[in-house]
Design brief:
The structure holds two protein chains of two kinds.
Chain A (H helix, E strand, L loop, with lengths): L25 H9 L2 H4 L13 H11 L3 E6 L2 E7 H10 L17 E2 L4 H11 L3 E5 L5 E6 H30 L6 E7 L9 H12 L4 H21 L3 E8 L2 E8 L7 H4 L9 H5 L7 H8 L2 E6 L5 E8 L5
Parallel strand pairs in A: 3-4
Antiparallel strand pairs in A: 1-2, 4-5, 6-7, 7-8, 8-10, 9-10
Helix pairs in contact in A: 1-6, 7-8, 8-11
Chain B lengths: L2 H7 L3 E4 L10 E4 L3 H6 L5 E5 L4 H9 L4 E4 L7 H10 L2 E4 L4 H12 L3
Parallel strand pairs in B: 2-3, 3-4, 4-5
Antiparallel strand pairs in B: 1-5
Classes of the chains: A alpha+beta, B alpha/beta.
Chain lengths: ~325, ~110
């Protein structure tokens, strides 16, 4: 038993993002990037104070049918007693000792606002059955195990399926069923440069497969790419959606903050609030929204400082192939 | 001029031979600002940049570039080769500066 809790770095590196196996359905990859640890973890916890004996912990495990019990007092997290610890206590003859003497304190913990994709990587890397979850104030707020993830993904996948079916039916009713070609949404995370641009690349590939005219594909791809990068660079995260219907392509970037103070100024060529880091990555030249406007037949932006921004680009594509 | 000839002129090391490797380069864009690259409405362009990031390749794919040459001998992150393979994008690296690369390509296209 060692004496320190080892939380992960406050800022997790991009290499910690779950890379996937390459075979997962796209909707699943989107879900694990969109969901946070707090959305999935078990937050109703059975905990014990440091004074509880190992036997009391064993009894709690039996009653609750759980294999790990956090040791916690007033939200402060001290360690974890696992089944292994109990087995060692039985074998070593110290099952009556206070758990604080034998609990595991060298722990890897997750933060509640981490994306689920990071948590999956931690399961891969550390092979632990569960991870305690702390909030920004370093208080214990939950436990995450593989079963929580399976359950949450099943619920979310069902919800996503219902939503897609509903949207599809709604659009079919409006447009006569044959004109919807594509309807997709991509969650975009703040500063996720590892993935930024993937959505636009996928949109372009779909359009190429459907043999849209190259000039049209280029305009749609540029609009989608600029909006995707904008979400990544300037928003707290959002959703890029696009659909092709009734002879037009519509790309919408929607986020929940932080909003734009002066929309007119933001749409001018060369104006940007991007910092030096963003510029060093090749972005933030202040051409993004202006570029979207340039390639769009219709362009709308609504924003308010302190709340979200929605940008819509419509590109007429004439008769669809 | 194809990417094969571009690589010879720039003494470039070709890391990924993508879809555009045998295509003719019709236009050359030299920039480190990706929004500037997106502004160029030309087909079959070659992108010269000193920016070594995955986004360069994604930008090149969006504009339908035939390839990307990272100049100044910049070390590339290992992910770039993977992304180039995924996008089927030709990727090369050259020790030439961006300016010298432009001059060399121009001279090769316009022999005296």
């Amino acid at each position: 038993m060692s004496e320190t809790i080892q939380p992960p770095a406050a800022c997790v590196t991009k290499s910690d993002a779950y890379p996937g196996t390459g075979d997962e359905p796209l909707v699943l990859l989107e879900l694990i990037q969109r969901l946070k640890v707090r959305d999935v973890m078990t937050s109703k916890l059975a905990t014990v104070p440091r004074t509880a004996t190992m036997r009391q912990v064993q009894e709690l495990m039996r009653q609750m049918k759980i294999s790990g019990v956090p040791v916690e007092e007033n939200g402060r997290f001290f360690g974890l007693v696992s089944v292994d610890d109990i087995i060692r206590a039985l074998g070593g003859g110290y099952i009556g000792d206070p758990c604080s003497r034998h609990m595991t304190t060298k722990l890897v913990v997750l933060e509640d606002d981490m994306p689920l994709s990071f948590a999956l990587r931690y399961f891969d890397r550390y092979h632990y059955g569960r991870f305690p979850v702390l909030n920004r104030d370093r208080r214990l707020v939950g436990i995450l195990c593989q079963r929580d993830i399976n359950r949450a993904l099943l619920v979310e996948l069902t919800r996503e399926l219902n939503r897609l079916e509903g949207t599809s039916a709604q659009n079919a009713a409006l447009t006569g069923a044959v004109s919807i070609y594509v309807l997709r949404e991509f969650p975009i995370c703040k500063y996720d440069f590892e993935n930024a641009g993937k959505a636009a690349n996928q949109i372009k590939q779909v359009l190429q497969e459907k043999k849209f005219p190259p000039k049209v594909i280029r305009r749609i791809a540029v609009a989608a790419y600029e909006l995707e990068i904008n979400l990544c660079v300037h928003s707290d995260g959002g959703v890029l959606s696009w659909q092709v219907s009734n002879g037009r392509a519509e790309i919408v970037a929607r986020d929940a903050g932080p909003g734009i103070e002066d929309v007119e100024w933001a749409c001018r060529d060369g104006t940007s609030t991007a910092n030096e880091w963003i510029r060093s990555l090749g972005f933030g030249a202040g051409m993004g929204l202006a570029n979207v406007k340039r390639v769009s037949d219709e362009f709308e932006i609504t924003s308010k400082k302190g709340s979200g921004t929605t940008v819509k680009s419509v590109i007429n594509i004439g008769n669809m192939p | 001029m194809t990417m094969i000839e571009v690589a010879e002129v720039l003494k470039a090391e070709v890391l990924v031979k993508g879809e555009g490797f045998h295509k003719a380069v019709c236009h050359v864009v030299a920039s480190d600002l990706m929004s500037d690259v997106l502004l160029v409405d030309e087909d079959d362009m070659l992108l010269l940049t000193s920016l070594a990031s995955d986004q360069v390749l994604r930008t090149a794919q969006i504009v339908g570039a035939v390839g990307v040459v990272v100049v100044n001998g910049k070390p590339l992150p290992s992910s770039m080769v993977n992304v180039a393979n995924d996008l089927n994008m030709t990727l090369a690296t050259s020790r030439f500066s961006k300016y010298d690369a432009c001059v060399a390509i121009h001279a090769a296209l316009n022999p005296r």
